[in-house]
Design goal:
single chain, alpha/beta, about 45% helix
Length: about 300
């Protein structure tokens, strides 16, 4: 068993109708809010109007159009500018993991006077960051319960995982019902992403029974309920099982006391999608079986046998 230190400060609020608790969550943090979202799904869901109504007594400034594989330019730069100009108190991310990843970079950039790429590329360590609250509409990345995000810089074909303990969300509101309208392609990609998160932390050395058990439970849960959600998109229980499993993917729980993962499949996929801008979970689904074949040898055989069982 390896030594470890574990701390996850994010508050989770999970279940049907929990969006109504948003004002009570936001009120102690601040009044000036940057509302960040993606391509418009939250408007089709009615979630945009719901959030605006719930926060009618707050000062809201908006940053929309955040893309999958969120872009440094324009989204992070625009977010930094708005936060500084409007003296934002708190960032509210409404959408999937890409929106939240972008908001994490913005949170650090808002408290930095230089080029945000200095932070993302680890040239400079952030000294402070704005607080973040999120409302998730997609189960995949686990960004709602960790301190990292992935940012793409198109002009240089860079895609970097930016991790800093300052970037844990203050609170994540997770209603599985908001994921029921996610199409089959992105549902499957999200499940593949989350399975891979567990696999990256399972294929390590040394390992232990507790960490293995966490990984195995998440993978089996996703294998069981992923197909159910594809066949019955409005099955709340299947969506809830998937969302909860995804949430624990990257917050350290799956790796307690085990050897550190180099996250090789993610590293390869980041390079792939930096050039081709493909959906992250799809990229991992392409790479994972090839990577497994590549590392299969006498030394790794025991782990493969346990994984197969």
């Amino acid at each position: 068993m390896e030594n470890f230190e574990y701390h996850t400060p994010t508050r989770l609020i999970f279940g049907k109708g929990i969006i109504d608790r948003l004002p009570e969550v936001m009120r102690p943090i601040g009044n000036k809010v940057l509302l960040a979202y993606g391509g418009g799904s939250i408007k089709r869901l009615g979630l945009y109007d719901k959030v605006k109504e719930l926060l009618k007594n707050f000062e809201i400034h908006e940053l929309g159009g955040i893309e999958p594989n969120p872009k440094y330019n324009p989204s992070v730069l625009d977010g930094q500018r708005i936060c500084k100009e409007k003296q934002i108190d708190v960032i509210l991310s409404v959408g999937g993991g890409s929106v939240l990843d972008c908001c994490k970079a913005i949170a650090a950039a808002a408290r930095y006077d230089g080029d945000p790429w200095d932070l993302i590329s680890y040239k400079v360590k952030a000294e402070d960051a704005l607080p973040i609250v999120d409302v998730m509409t997609l189960a995949a990345t686990g960004s709602e319960y960790d301190c990292g995000g992935v940012i793409s810089r198109t002009e240089t074909n860079d895609k970097i995982g930016y991790v800093d303990p300052l970037l844990y969300p203050v609170c994540s509101l997770l209603d599985p019902a908001y994921t029921e309208t996610v199409n089959a392609k992105h549902t499957a990609a999200g499940v593949a992403d989350a399975i891979n998160h567990a696999m990256e932390q399972f294929f390590v050395n040394p390992s232990n029974s507790v960490a293995d058990g966490f990984c195995e439970t998440l993978i089996k849960t996703l294998m069981k309920f992923g197909p159910v959600a594809l066949d019955h998109p409005d099955d709340y229980e299947a969506r809830a099982e998937i969302m909860l499993a995804c949430t624990f993917g990257c917050n350290g729980l799956l790796n307690l006391g085990a050897g550190m993962s180099g996250w090789p499949m993610h590293g390869i996929e980041h390079a792939l999608s930096a050039y081709y801008d493909i959906t992250h979970g799809e990229g991992l689904a392409i790479i994972t079986p090839r990577w497994m074949r590549h590392i299969l040898n006498d030394r790794t055989l025991e782990r493969f046998v346990k994984f197969g069982v």
